[in-house]
Every structure is written in C-alpha cells, then in structure tokens.
Amino acid sequence: MEIPTWPRVPCPEPAVARTLVLGWLLLQVAGASGTSEVVVAYNLTWKSINFKTILEWEPKPINHVYTVRISPRLGNWKSKCFYIRDTECDLTDEIVKDVTQTYRARVLSYPADINDYYGDPPFTDSPEFTPYVDTKLGQAKIQSFKQVGTKLNVTIQDARTLVRRNGTFQSLQDVFGKNLSYTLYYWKASSTGKKTAQTDTNEFLIDVDEGENYCFSVQVAIPSRKANQKSTESSTECTSHEKGMFRGEWLCPAFIWEARTTSRGLVHPQNQDGLLFGEKQPSCCYCCLSVLCCSGGTQQF
Ligand SMILES: *[C@@H]1O[C@H](CO)[C@@H](O)[C@H](O)[C@H]1NC(C)=O
Ligand SMILES: *[C@@H]1O[C@H](CO)[C@@H](O)[C@H](O)[C@H]1NC(C)=O
Ligand SMILES: *[C@@H]1O[C@H](CO)[C@@H](O)[C@H](O)[C@H]1NC(C)=O
Ligand SMILES: *[C@@H]1O[C@H](CO)[C@@H](O)[C@H](O)[C@H]1NC(C)=O
Fold first, then answer.
1. Residue 159 near residue 171 (C-beta atoms within 8 A)
2. Which helix (H) or strand (E) holds 29?
3. What b/e readout covers 27-50, taking b as 16+ CB neighbours within 10 angstroms?
4. Are 108 and 165 found together in one domain?
5. 127 lines ligand 1 (CB under 6 A)
6. Among the three residues 212, 238, 264, which one is the final residue of a domain in this structure?
7. Whose CA is nearest to atom 11 of ligand 2?
8. Mind listing the pLDDT tens digit for each residue in 237-287?
9. Which of residues 214, 238, 262 is at a domain's end?
10. Are residues 229 and 146 in the same domain?
C-alpha cells in the first residue's frame, strides 16, 4: 500500500518534482495525439466465394489510409491496394496463383499525409487463409432440365472461377475434381415428400412417374471438408406437362398489354382507334398460337 501514501512521503523539493512529472505527462499526451490519427485495423475477415476473395477490416479511416500486404506462408510480402480509404481489398489475383497455399495478409495504417511519413507503420495481421479449404461454395444454379417419359434430366451449372490453368479459367469441377459432390432434392409437385439423389458429376438422370410434374432444387458440397461443406440450395424449378398451354396463358396477356402500351405511345390522337393497333395484332396472334387467345386479344382493342 505504498501508492496512496506516496504524496505524504517527505520530499526535499516537492514542487520541482511535481513540475517534472507534469511536464513529462504533457509530453506523453502531445506525442499520443500526434499518432492517434493512425488507427490500427481490427477484425480482419476473409470473404471468399468460389475463390473470389476479399479481405475486409475495420474501422473506416478518418485521418489515415491503409495498404494491404499478402504473402504465401513461406513467400515474400506483396503490397496491394496502396494507401486506400476503403476497408476492403480484393486479393483474388494473388490467391488464385496457387489455391492450395496458405496465405496471410497484413493491413498497415499510414497517416493520410503520407508524404511526411517515415518509419514503420503500425499493422495488424489477418487469420491464415487457404483458398482450397476456406473458400465458400456459391449458391448452386440449375442450368437446364428436361422430363421425358419416366426420366428427369437435371444439369447443374458448373460455376466458373477465376483460377487459371494454362491460361484458361477453371470451373469449380476442374478445381475440386472428385472432391465435389452434387445433390438433387426432388418431389412430386402434388406432394411434399422429398427425395434425394447424389452424383459426382453435374448431371442427374433419375426415374420419375410418367405424367407427373416434379419440383427440385440442387446443392453442391465438398464432403471431405470440416467447415464450409455445402453451398446454399439453388432456387426451385418445376417441370410442367402442359408447357405449351402454360406459355400461351401467361404470355398472351403480357403481349396484349405490351402491344397496347407501345401503340399508345406511338399513335396520334386523331386515330386512337386506328391502324397501329391493327398492326400489332398479327404479332400477338403469332406469339400466342391460339385462336381463343387472339380473339380475346382483339376484343380488348
Ligand atoms: C467483426 O466483424 C464481424 C462480421 O464482419 C461482426 O459480426 C463483428 O461484430 C465484428 N466485431 C467487432 C468487434 O466489430
Ligand atoms: C441431359 O441434359 C443435358 C443438357 O441438356 C445433355 O447434355 C445430356 O446429354 C442429357 N442427358 C441425357 C442422358 O439425356
Ligand atoms: C498445361 O500445359 C502443359 C505444357 O504446356 C501440359 O503439359 C499440360 O498437360 C497442360 N495442362 C492442362 C490441364 O491442360
Ligand atoms: C481432395 O481434397 C484433398 C484435400 O482436401 C486433396 O488432398 C485431394 O487431392 C483432393 N482430390 C481431388 C481429386 O482434387
């Protein structure tokens, strides 16, 4: 308990000592305010989907700027995003050079007036990042589907990445090979009981009941991973057996509407009921391919 008693300790020249201490304190405060404009980055986070990779951090700079450096674990630092006022830096170009490497990044803080600055800027290091393991899988997309008889054929889009090999961009399947697995969830449109099918190619050919409509969605995954295993599911698509009719019913009102609005824009006031509508009618009929639909359309004009 020496500190509380310290002021009472007899001292030969208390006034001088106090002045010195005060002076030292003032110097410290002045020094601190000089560098307090340079704030170190914190909360460095890798955001990476299908190898598109961005490093983010905080805070928004007020009176300083950032530069980012990146390096493979055993390589040299390379600077990116020089003296920026953003709080993110796209490092895709660097990490696609070798997606199986482990990278580290560093965010350096410089005063905004960089010309007067000499010395080593303060910095913060990111967590390590291994693209092959850490990049997330983008939402799966259905590329095409077809139901013929008792077969349903669904093809999943093989997403393109920015990874290059021999100068050509690689797809997700090129990069992950057999490590990538594809899942199809499907169900009869008239029920909710879901079934699942899995392949290691992006194409499904499954047996279905003839004449039934089916709905389905897809997902890609890397089962060997410990984290970030699965993409989010694609949106749902459904087959439709009365496709032609469906098209007619949905497209025709749209075309009639379009014909009316575009014509209205062109027509002169004096021939409001005139020729321009007539000119549009054949295109409506052509698209609808249905007499009923066309006569309905004509009545509307
Ligand atoms: C760090 O970032 C994450 C997401 O980017 C956010 O949820 C979290 O609140 C941040 N932490 C701090 C201390 O700001
Ligand atoms: C399934 O559809 C895809 C894309 O349309 C096609 O390339 C493929 O040959 C089809 N597979 C079968 C077995 O019909
Ligand atoms: C890339 O090019 C080299 C030689 O130029 C060739 O041996 C190799 O097979 C090529 N790889 C691919 C995946 O095309
Ligand atoms: C699958 O991933 C592991 C590491 O997670 C890797 O060692 C292996 O080469 C990969 N296989 C293919 C075919 O890409």
1. yes
2. helix 14-35
3. eeeeeeeeeeebbebeebebebbb
4. no
5. no
6. 238
7. 153
8. 999 875 433 333 344 444 444 444 443 333 333 333 333 333 333 333 333
9. 238
10. yes
Q: How confident is the model at residue 114 (pLDDT cuts 50, 70, 90)?
A: confident
- Considering every ligand atom, which ligand is closest to the CA of 167? 3
List residues bridging with 197 in a β-sheet. Answer: 184
What atom in ligand 2 is closest to the CA of residue 153? 1
* 111: CATH: 2.60.40.10
For residues 153 and 177, state if they share a domain. Answer: yes
Q: How many structural domains does the chain have?
A: 4
pTM greater than the 0.90 cutoff: no
C-alpha 200 to ligand 4 mean position (Å): 14
Cβ(43) to ligand 1 under 6 A? yes
- Cα 167 to ligand 3 centroid, rounded to whole Å: 10
Full domain range(s) for residue 98 = 42-134
**Which of 160, 181, 180, 157 is CA-nearest to residue 170?**
160
Residue 36 has pLDDT above 90, yes or no: no
Per residue in 124-175, pLDDT (tens digit) is: 999 999 999 999 999 999 999 999 999 999 999 999 999 999 889 999 999 9
Secondary structure of residue 243 in the 3-state scheme: helix
Which residue minimizes the CA distance to atom 14 of ligand 3? Answer: 166
Identify whether residues 11 and 56 lie together within a single domain: no
